[in-house]
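Field: COMPLEX_INPUT
Field: COMPONENT_COUNT = two
Field: RESIDUE_TOTAL = 230
Field: MODE = joint
Values follow.
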Amino acid sequence: GAGVSQSPRYKVAKRGQDVALRCDPISGHVSLFWYQQALGQGPEFLTYFQNEAQLDKSGLPSDRFFAERPEGSVSTLKIQRTQQEDSAVYLCASSLSGTVINQPQHFGDGTRLSIL
Amino acid sequence: KNQVEQSPQSLIILEGKNCTLQCNYTVSPFSNLRWYKQDTGRGPVSLTIMTFSENTKSNGRYTATLDADTKQSSLHITASQLSDSASYICVVRVGKTSYDKVIFGPGTSLSVIP
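Field: COMPLEX_OUTPUT
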């Protein structure tokens, strides 16, 4: 498909386990964003990539969260030693160029993470 | 603090009726304002993008307005359909940033019933 693809769609993990969430952006999109969305709330910014460079990681809630985009396309969000408060939907979005003012972000359908 | 607020939190309307959703923001500097539709279990989808100089923008049965002086926006849905049931999220881009830094509102949950 031509959209942003995220996998897995659902992930259940026990507290303390590590998890890895994958995002395949739209081909050719320079900008990639990760967001965390709690139930009934709007998405909250986690981190931003321009190609392979992570230019803003100010939204990552702790050093247990790590994101990478080594070749400037696919990105992985890793959460180490998961805790119950990490339970949320994790959304990935991409856009052709983050510097052009009026381009929308295109979102994937998210990964719903549940920590038991 | 940059914030985006939306009202009402939730809304139930009959199929065929119109409705208006509200958004207030305190984001500064301001670049643009977007409305997204998010179906349950799906990612948000862009409906409109409005810049400082635009007062009104339409996309089918959706019409967005922007008053940059009062920092308010509205999304009007005409002749609602069952498929309009979703969360509608107001999103504001922060100006003078090197990338597309945006602030999301909490969303308005709309239910259209037959």
